[in-house]
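Appendix B, Record 12. Input sequence as logged:
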Amino acid sequence: MRRNLLSRPPVRNILPLLASSRMKKAELAARLAREAGVSQAEAADQLQHLVSRIISNLKKGETARLPGLGKFTPGPRWSFQFEPKERKPAPRRGKR
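Logged structural output:
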């Protein structure tokens, strides 16, 4: 049974950290395995599946989104755009 590692809460919390560093695929798989509590082989398999889906979408001219992180966009040079951080509204002051 294939589990989606990216949908599990512990992994979702580390995505911004991973995006800001330059990790090799093996290092990323090891970190995903540790955070998700699965084997490194399973994490590497899921990571390869994710990368394959992103490349497949880009080759078809489609955007590949990573919720909470950003999106890959197709074109002559594929690009990645980070999602802006959500801005919380300022608290209201005084009585209404």
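Strands lie at 64-66, 70-73, 79-82.
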